[in-house]
Amino acid sequence: MQKKILLTGASGTLGFEVLKQLCAIGDKYEITIFDVKTAKNIKKFSPYKGSVNIIYGDITNESDVLKACYNQDVVIHLAAIIPPLADDKPALSHQVNTVGTQILIRLLELHSSSAFFVYSSSISVYGDRLNNPMITVTDPLNPSEGDEYAKTKILAEETIRNCNLDWSIFRLTAIMGGHKISKLMFHQPLKTSLEIATPRDTATAFVNAVNHQMQLSKKIFNLGGGENCRIKYDDFLSRSFEIFGLGKLNFLPKSFADKNFHCGYYADGDVLNDLLNFRKDTLEDYFENQQNKISGFTKALISVFKVPIKKYLEKRSEPLQAYIDNDLKLMEHYFITNNLK
Q1: Which domains does the chain carry?
Q2: Alpha-carbon span 170 to 141, nearest angstrom
Q3: PANTHER family under this entry (predicted)?
Q4: Which of 32, 124, 181, 287 has the smallest CB count inside 10 Å?
Q5: Rounded distance between C-alpha atoms, residue 210 and residue 117, angstroms
Q6: Is the pLDDT of residue 341 over 60?
Q7: How do residues 292-337 score in pLDDT, each as one tens digit?
Q8: Local confidence band at 177 (pLDDT 50, 70, 90 cut-offs)
Q9: Cis previous bond, 84, omega within 30
């Protein structure tokens, strides 16, 4: 008998990788995906029409969500508003990430009471870990000031822990791959300890979780790439800039924040990998993959325009703008006071 799996957020980088891996297994599962109806998503899911059940809807609309909640065995809940949009529109973020999760849980309790609910949370719930980068799941949840995304994840976790379903929560590290440059690049202090994981490895963890309910039941895990995926943020950016032909990481002083972000190294990340055996990629694999994505022509073209490109990026730095404007409130948010002298 086929196991019925509901996947939310299947159009995202991670969600689509989960979908591909589930479908690659064959006819072992009956897969339902739930996502927002857009022209882009319709095109993205078109190859899967007929092989998976596609339900379009709004995660904050009960009548939409209800259509996906009947007789599911496993639910992989990835749908979320992520930064920077999550922080720019906190009300929307709360509705989708927190209220949407609450609606989904409530309807599953009514119509799929035996479902195993697997949730993607975030390393952001631990807050700023510059001074103590080794993180374990028992550490206090202390989101950085202004991190609306982290707050929504903490509230969603609370709902899950108190629900009547069986569940497991994976707190994801920085998932790098298909990542777009945004203003958040400058929010992260250069000396941040960064442990990445690739979308492929992360998706494998969720896919393998389907058949490891007993070992995962009612537990929270940190999901990261492990020791072979660790690097300091300034080194990560420097190598990325080199790969894309952008030259040195030579932005103006005060372009990068000193504090109030997140990330670190998962001291207990091996626990989940020992159960699910999902790690295959290393940091070097990630950089090689990035290198292979860019053609020699594109890299040469970027190299020619690297100065104006970096100037454009620099203008998007909110810490630098706060410093230029002498905005004391924002400077206090982004910078350590002693570093402003």
Answers
A1: 3-187+195-229+262-287 (3.40.50.720), 238-260+289-340 (no CATH)
A2: 14
A3: DTDP-D-GLUCOSE 4,6-DEHYDRATASE-RELATED
A4: 181
A5: 10
A6: no
A7: 988 989 999 999 999 999 999 999 999 999 999 999 999 999 999 7
A8: confident
A9: yes
Token pair for 172: 């994801």
Question: CB neighbours of 28 closer than 8 A, spacing ≥ 6?
Answer: 2, 3
Please state, as a whole number, how many other Cβ atoms lie within 10 Å of the Cβ of residue 216. Answer: 22
Of 12, 60, 59, 4, the closest CA to residue 32 belongs to: 4
Q: Nearest Cα to 121, choosing from 55, 58, 180, 175?
A: 175
- The per-residue pLDDT for range 7-32, each reduced to its tens digit, is 999 999 999 999 999 999 978 899 99
Residue whose token pair is 């709360």: 94
How many angstroms separate the CA atoms of 105 and 13, rounded?
23
Residue 31 to residues 49, 53, 100, 133, 297: CA-CA distances in angstroms? 11, 6, 20, 38, 41
Q: In a 3-state reduction of DSSP, which class is residue 142?
A: coil
Of 214, 114, 93, 236, the C-alpha closest to 163 is: 114
Structure tokens at 250: 């030579």
* Count of CB atoms situated within 10 Å of the CB of 165: 16
Per the rule left: phi > 0, alpha: psi between -120 and 50, beta: everything else, 327 is beta
Distance of CA 276 to the CA centre of its chain: 19
The reported pTM is 0.95
pLDDT at residue 170 is higher than 90: yes
106: enclosing H helix or E strand: helix 100-111
Is 47's pLDDT higher than 80? Answer: yes
